Amino acid sequence: MLNIAVVTNKPYATCETFIKAQIDKLPFNCIQYWVKEAPFVSKTTNKLGFSKVLSKVRSHKATPEKRIIKEFKKQNIQVVLAQYGMIGTVMLESCSILNLPLVVHFHGHDAVRKSVLEKYGKCYTKMFSYEKTTVVSVSHEMTKRLVALGCPEDKIRYNTYGPADSFLEVQPTYASQQFVFIGRFVEKKAPHVLLLAFSKVLKEFPDAKLVCAGDGPLLDSSKDLAHAMGVEGSVDFVGRINHTIYQEYLRNSIAYVQHSIEAIDGDMEGTPVSILEASGAGLAVISTTHAGIPDVIVHKKTGLLCKERDAAAMAQHMLHTLRNPEEAKAMGVTGKEHITKNFSQQAHLNGLTTILKEAL
After folding, report:
1. Domain CATH number, residue 204
2. How many CB atoms lie within 10 A of CB 49?
3. Which neighbouring-strand residues pair with 62?
4. For the segment 52-78, what is each residue's pLDDT rounded down to a tens digit?
């Protein structure tokens, strides 16, 4: 069995669900490490308390690269899987010295945000030129952006995420006038555009509801906007929720809504897991032709897509599902079949398994 070092930018407990799924379910001996740029590397699988591990690593006199090399030799690491492009640049020197394959998994902002590219652009160029680098892209748009950054196209492997199997077991009722959104309240999610679109929906369907789950820096301003537009009684801001509660909202909604855009600072989605989860659960997805969304949502077959920042078009798509609930149901059913067949979590893990084996 291959020994894989999965290197993240934070401890396991706070990693994204798709990264946890990789650590837990890939058919390898996966050992997770987390790094903050270069000062230290901390193995999180030894069950020691966070502060004890951190203080122990910080007290070591060896350079970060020497510590990494010693640890990787000790564990007989054969492939390094770096989560996010920035972490890939941190691991490059150690991999080069050990002649180890480096698989760099890009996820979104690491390939597009202006501040990231300003800081890591030259490091990316060096990382792309390493003979044993393989790059994982989660959307076709991301692939284009990576090529524009100088990554040879033959080094890029497209492999998007998949929803947990529990979402495929959800059976929506399609009986309500409720829409649901879940995600960080940040600019690339454009919650303000979603609220503007929904306010137009209420003029024809005053009993419609919008559930907004999640938190983030734009949450309070979104609440203020809902109040200013007079729609606060029709919008429920429910905060952060777990998968079980999210699946219950999916079960009792007519469609999933998310108005993703390219932010002013260049930030973009990869392929939103929440959209894969909603479509896998059997809901029509109303969203934008942004990043990896059109890779997984088929317009007019599994959902309805509009241009970024087009609130009027999004409102019309939401109205269409309310006026035609049977069509919304049909798109949801087709979406579940499409995700199950092409974008399941197992398909994602199988794809990553192949990439890691081929990196050797």
Report:
1. 3.40.50.2000
2. 8
3. none
4. 233 334 444 567 788 889 989 999 999
Distance CA 36, CA 15 (A): 14
User: Are 190 and 98 found together in one domain?
Assistant: no
Calculate the alpha carbon distances from 233 to 13, 180, 223, 227, 237 in Å.
35, 15, 11, 8, 10
Number of domains in the chain: 2
Q: Does 188 score more than 90 pLDDT?
A: yes
Per DSSP, the three-state class of 91 is helix
What confidence tier does 49 reach under pLDDT thresholds 50, 70, 90? very low
Nearest to 243 by CA among 20, 7, 52: 20
337 and 349 inside one domain:
no
Q: pLDDT higher for 96 or 33? A: 96
Spell out the residues 6+ positions from residue 352 whose beta carbon is closer than 8 angstroms to its own: 22, 26, 105, 136, 159
Written as six digits, the tokens of 49 are: 């308390």
Contacts of 261 (CB under 8 A, 6+ apart): 187, 188, 190, 193, 288, 290, 308, 309
**What is the rounded CA–CA span in Å between residue 38 and residue 41?**
8
263 and 117: one domain? no
Q: Are residues 142 and 170 in the same domain?
A: no
Q: Can you give the residue range of the structural domain that contains 39?
A: 3-160+345-359
